[in-house]
TrEMBL record:
It comes from Xanthocytophaga flava. SMART domains: HTH_ARAC (SM00342). The keyword Transcription applies. InterPro entries: Homeodomain-like_sf, HTH_AraC. Pfam families: HTH_18. This is Helix-turn-helix transcriptional regulator. PANTHER family: ARAC-FAMILY TRANSCRIPTIONAL REGULATOR, HTH-TYPE TRANSCRIPTIONAL REGULATOR EXSA. The keyword Electron transport does not apply. It comes from the Bacteria. Residues 64-162 form the HTH araC/xylS-type domain. Keywords: DNA-binding, Transcription, Transcription regulation.
Length: 173
């Protein structure tokens, strides 16, 4: 809604607004793009016009949707096949582009997203570790615990007892 408001204030007519992507009817002039960039930054967004960076944002959006979705069928799919299908690109190309731009692999990014989801579920304190492992399709609680400790330096049970907000916002991962 905020992005739509900024676009309308700039006299632009959005066709479609999704997480990480906006389509507008008009072609942006250089000065109009700069003005839009500044107004979006004022409200915590950024204008991406580099093709590589746009693709990276699309990859991240697909992964976030995949990991944080409540749809169990969606979470069970093969990650590489799903990403390639959603973006209509070869996974090898997407993987090397992501690594080149972000400095980490897509797989590592997926693990980071899963760990953030685990943190969220631990903070809610509604599910056991076993239920969380099952929900996120870990092969075992031990696998989840090992991955959690490797990423955070803490065990899931220790993290749960901290009761501090240790979560990162999704755009900071």
């Amino acid at each position: 809604m905020v992005v739509q408001q900024v676009l309308q204030e700039e006299g632009l007519h959005p066709i479609d607004i999704r997480l990480g992507e906006v389509q507008i009817q008009e072609e942006l002039a250089v000065d109009q793009a700069q003005s839009l960039r500044e107004k979006l930054e004022e409200v915590g967004f950024e204008l991406l016009d580099d093709k590589k960076q746009k693709m990276i944002e699309r990859i991240k959006t697909v992964i976030i949707t995949l990991i944080h979705s409540e749809n169990d069928n969606l979470q069970k799919v093969n990650h590489s096949d799903y990403i390639a299908e959603q973006l209509n690109r070869d996974y090898g190309y997407l993987s090397s582009l992501f690594s080149e731009v972000e400095g980490i692999t897509i797989e590592k990014y997926i693990i980071n997203q899963k760990i953030e989801k685990v943190k969220e579920l631990l903070m809610y304190d509604e599910l056991s570790l076993s239920e969380i492992a099952d929900q996120l399709h870990y092969s075992s609680v031990q696998h989840l615990s090992n991955q959690f400790k490797k990423v955070t330096g803490l065990t899931p049970s220790y993290f749960k007892h901290l009761k501090e907000k240790k979560r990162k916002s999704l755009d900071q991962i």
